[in-house]
Amino acid sequence: MNKIKVFYAEDELFLGKIVKESLESRGFEVMMESDGGKAVAAFKKSEADICVLDIMLPNKDGFAIADEIREINEDVPIIFLTAKTQTEDVVKGFSLGANDYIRKPFSMEELIVRIQNALRYKSEAPSKINSDAIAVGKYTFNLNRQVLAKEGEDRKLSYRESELLRLLYENRDKVLDRKDILNLLWGNDSFFNSRNLDVYITKLRSYLKDDPGVEIITIKGIGYRFVLP
Amino acid sequence: MNKIKVFYAEDELFLGKIVKESLESRGFEVMMESDGGKAVAAFKKSEADICVLDIMLPNKDGFAIADEIREINEDVPIIFLTAKTQTEDVVKGFSLGANDYIRKPFSMEELIVRIQNALRYKSEAPSKINSDAIAVGKYTFNLNRQVLAKEGEDRKLSYRESELLRLLYENRDKVLDRKDILNLLWGNDSFFNSRNLDVYITKLRSYLKDDPGVEIITIKGIGYRFVLP
DNA sequence: TTGCATTATGGTTAATAAACGTTAAAGCAG
DNA sequence: CTGCTTTAACGTTTATTAACCATAATGCAA
Predict the structure, then answer these.
(1) CA A213, C1' D14: Å apart?
(2) From A47's CA, which of A56, A70, A202, B106 has a CA 20 to 30 Å away?
(3) Residue B105: which of A63, A92, A117 has the nearest Cβ?
């Protein structure tokens, strides 16, 4: 699977590093540039799938960069980051158009949701698992609707349950690291989150217990393997 | 269909750019000018259907610009933008034949509604979902009329209900942030508005409950996803 | 090597907290 | 008065934290 490439223009290096690492831990590839003047060239070289641009940058601001990027590439989604003081006091609502805005401070969850949404327009490639129901043993799983169905019985899954099941399914028959799951779903793998994952594994096992062919196998010290009939 | 042309005089460039893009993403065409001295000439060239003028502008303020615009065109609607502190300006604005004024901070929803109101008698609304009825499962939704129809049964929606449904529909199958909804429809995402959104989600769910394929799925801590059959 | 204790890791369940849902009533504008 | 929006109170669901249990790996003595 090819990684999604994110071009990220940010001059606050401390914040930038955190965001970069956080995105990388979730499977994105990130190219970061802190100088507005060099951003367009860096974008060109990056061949990025999506841009995240801070508006306030030295030498050239995010809007000017966006304009030039648009000349090179009409379609690449652009997400702007704006500081609170720049806009919030004046306009309190943004549009959700081709270009998107996120106000600082933002959570990683927010940024990731926006990136995923923005990329959704473009390629249906990631996997068809999004829209269609898929077979999981004698169950049927619909990710968009977050429903795990079994002959005559639908169970509504919560977002976390459903995202964990998706992850397991996408990596079925392979060993999936605990660490990776935690980073992808919780953003980090601290002590508490670790127990959290256990709780959700327990839940999924209980939901799936009616088909003995469907198993979440523990690989102690490493992670899990999801096997289907 | 011809786009509605908005002439927009604004010197805060960051704000201006965001507003411009927001309007454009909703199907308006926007001509922006940041220098009061050049505004009248720019308006002439723009052949705009409506003007949005910030009052505080360099070289020539919004009132003076409005005066000159009125000499050229008696009918074009003018909306003033005033900073919070300049309330006394409002009176002056109305005496100059302004159609409306908006105090900063304002939400994009607010601006769009005012623009649409001002133009109500002149031409049809810009966004294509505005004029046509759209299919929502076995329902039909007409945004302009704010009517949600089901075989033999029409339900008149209130403004908020209908705007929320539009937002959900425009972002169907995607994760829509609570924060965005709140900012777009209410102008901010304070504690009280948050409960408010819940109330309207409940209402829409109950209106839509006859088609089980139409669902507003909660994504706790993030927002909602609207799914259609 | 066997048997037993130790330790680490994950499993399970329950308690708590946070977020969201529902309903009714109060406020408000036309 | 009427219809819509907001506020408020309370209920429910989901997520997190905590406590305790089970088991596999490790270490060590006999």
Answers:
(1) 28
(2) A56
(3) A92
Q: How many other CB atoms are found less than 10 A from the CB of residue A35?
A: 14
* CB contact at 8 A, B187 and B106: yes
D28 C1' to B95 CA distance, Å: 96
pTM score above 0.70: yes
What is the tens place of the pLDDT at every residue in B9-38?
998 887 888 888 888 877 889 999 999 999
Minimal Cα distance from B213: which residue of A? A145
Q: Does A145 touch chain B (CB under 8 A)?
A: yes
Alpha helices in chain A (DSSP H): 13-25, 36-46, 62-72, 84-87, 108-122, 159-170, 178-186, 191-207
Contact between A20 and A9 under an 8 Å Cβ cutoff? The reply is no
Decide: CB of B195 under 7 A of nucleic strand C.
yes
- β-pairing verdict for B175-177 and B223-227: antiparallel
- Rounded to whole angstroms, how far apart are CA atoms A187 and A192? 12
Say if residues A68 and A37 touch (Cβ distance below 8 Å): no
pLDDT in tens, A147-183: 999 887 889 999 999 999 999 998 898 888 888 888 8
In one letter, which amino acid is A219?
Answer: I
CA distance A85 to chain B (A): 11
